[in-house]
Amino acid sequence: MSKERPTPTPPEQATDRLFATERKPEDFRFDASVARVFPDMIRRSVPGYTTIIPMIEVITEQYAQSGSNCYDLGCSLGASTLAMRHGIDDNDCQLFGVDNSAAMIERCEHYIALDDSSLPVTLRCEDILDTELSNASVTTLNFTLQFVPPEQRAELLARIASATRPGGVLILSEKIRFESEQEQEIQTRLHHEFKRANGYSDLEISQKRSAIEQVLIPETLAAHRERLLSAGFDQVMLWYQCFNFVSMLAIKAD
Questions:
Q1: What is the pLDDT of residues 4-13, one digit of tens each?
Q2: What is the pLDDT of residues 52-65, one digit of tens each?
Q3: β strands within the chain, DSSP E
């Protein structure tokens, strides 16, 4: 007789106060302290994040193909992984979540266990640059590519495109920069006002920006389009933008 499985305990979440006091300057890292506050951090820092996640489910529902693989590269705590999971209505699909942060993967496992979908999810703690990709119908890079060294981005996208089946897609969400210095200044100011409206102080905004500016390297929308097409995708469209945060859909022709 099988034993009833215990209900998983959700991981502790905390309000993001990591940059609320003066601290020694250092590069931003996805360590255990960030993992613990990450849901609050990303909700209060990324305009439109709470819209993008459910739309990933909608897009996955449209493009996931029977017998294919689906990948969430840089899955962090699994928000987009779970969105993809609920968008896949064929249990013949395989879903993979990949992140190089052990702290993120550990917490992601809890969220996967709490979810009510029966579709299996394979989590891998590894660098997405080393992840084997094949037979893909939907791949998501949700605010992940911006943390990959710029000189390695083209090769990663080429591998994704090569692994994508005809009719498959890549969902690419990124913070971008603008060609016009005036627009860059305006969009940055609006983003900072968004953070202030969500309770971040000027000190928190300044210290977070200093910590992340050498780690998160944004590019223009034109640069993203050109590289996606060069990688092997046939069509690239912008489906969402809020200030300097965007999400694109790169499609492989049937």
A1: 545 566 667 7
A2: 999 999 999 999 99
A3: 69-73, 94-99, 121-125, 136-142, 164-175, 235-242, 245-251
Which amino acid is residue 68, in one-letter code?
A: S
Q: State whether CATH 3.50.50.60 applies to domain 45-177+214-251.
A: no
Q: Where in the chain are the domains?
A: 45-177+214-251
Q: Is 66 a known ligand-binding residue?
A: no
Is 127 annotated to bind a ligand? Reply is yes
pLDDT at 24: 81
Residue type, 201: S
pLDDT at residue 11, as a whole number: 66
Closest CA to 163 of 68, 65, 61: 68
Judge whether 254 is annotated as a binding position. Answer: no
| Helix and strand numbers, DSSP H then E, in the chain | 8, 7
Phi, psi of 136 (to 5 degrees): -90, 140
Q: What number of residues does the chain have? A: 254
pTM > 0.70: yes or no: yes
Query: Would the annotation count 242 as a binding residue?
Result: no
CA–centroid distance for 149 within its chain:
16
